[in-house]
Amino acid sequence: MVKELKKISNGVEKIVNLCKNRGFINLSSEPYGGFSSCYDYGPLGVELKNNIKTAWWEEMTKRHDNIVGLDAAILMSPKVWEASGHLSAGFADELVECKKCHKRFRFNELKPKTYNLKPIICPECGGEFTQPKKFNLMMKTFIGPVEDEAAVTYLRAETCQGIYMNFNWARNSMRLKIPFGIAQIGKAFRNEITPKSFIYRTREFEQMEMQFFVHPKEADKWFDYWKEERMRWYLNLGIKKENLRFHEHTKKELAHYAKKGIDIEYKFSLGSPGGEAGWQEIEGIHNRGDWDLSNHSRYSGKDLSYFDPSTGSGQAKEKYIPYIIETSAGADRSLLAFLIDAYSEVKGGRTETTESAKEIEIVLKLDKRLAPVKIAVLPLVKNKKDLIKKSEEVYNLLRTEFVVQYDEVGSIGRRYRRQDEIGTPYCVTIDFQTLEDNSVTVRDRDTMKQERVAINKLSDSLIF
Ligand code: GAP
Of 40, 240, 375, 408, whose CB is crowded by the most CB atoms within 10 A? Predict the structure, then answer.
């Protein structure tokens, strides 16, 4: 996979290599040579992604008692996308094509690199470009067997439109009062012109979006609140402070629906997936104003305004279209940031595991809550039946509660090393003393300190 991605990812090969070799992420349709910048999450990738999604879901729906969850359909009426503005020029990238090699590029990606070259030339072959053309990013499909205009619909380009469709239903059924939020995790699709960037920019991706409905006068206050909350979430899950920053959108950068926007950016220091090392967006926080609910009210004929129950009775109640403060994170993009941030190399290897001074050992210092495998169970040697039996007992005890790997292959140092590479926080070793007093050693991934713990206290002593 690195071979295919080398020409396009410029610097993230180490991560791509690790992802491929250790079961995190692979090309989609691999036997056919991959497909169109699509990726599959393997046994460890899916655990890591699920842990990120769980951390986000719990943050939203458990830490905040005024946020509820939702899982809306990917396919919706095409009218939704007409009303949201996604079918018009607002949701389009400018595309240019090289007249010589016919490669296509996003115009705004070329400009910063070559703005003082007149005219802008193709970075691949030096050819001249066509004039920029608007290219809509909606992914078209057909409903039913007849592929005519009447059957056209779209795969959703952002998950939040499903939330707006259910604004009234969720509010009424759960008796929600403003301010309140609706959270959703799900797939979104965009016909990106140049995905080319491992999982950073793909045509199929997953979003974790929360839409917070507020009184228009309180929009600024809640925007500031959510901006800080979202930054805190990444920091709390271990991303280094110096690798995160805010980037406020200029008027030109604002999405067609936004009054105000700020990105949380991650510093892709290993070489950004876009090809240049540097700051790139992992989440957007937007004040969408009343854009969505007003347009959906207008297009559907259904009133999506809110009667404030705290303001008098009957006709005297204040009625308004709520403003929406949105937090929109990419599950795949943040996964890439978590992986890169956790990636560290120890030159010469770590004392207990190294086999040669030239070695470079990888340690994935993922937050323990995110680590795909929580515990490794390792018999000290594999040719002692009693040790293996005891190890299997410990493995069966822990696996009901945690994701656990059992490994008896190779030296103990080599096995520690394999676990460090995938970020396993704890290695539990069963040795000869275990057979005498039912205690095991627990090795901490980061400190490499080993402690003896009684088997019956094991699951309580492991902190995540
Ligand atoms: N509902 C607002 C919205 O979709 P966005 O800034 O277009 O806003 C939000 O997208 C987040 O979704 C981004 O910060 C990014 O993490 C993720 N995202 C967007 N397009 C993506 C793509 N092509 N591949 C992977 N992730 C993407």
Answer: 375
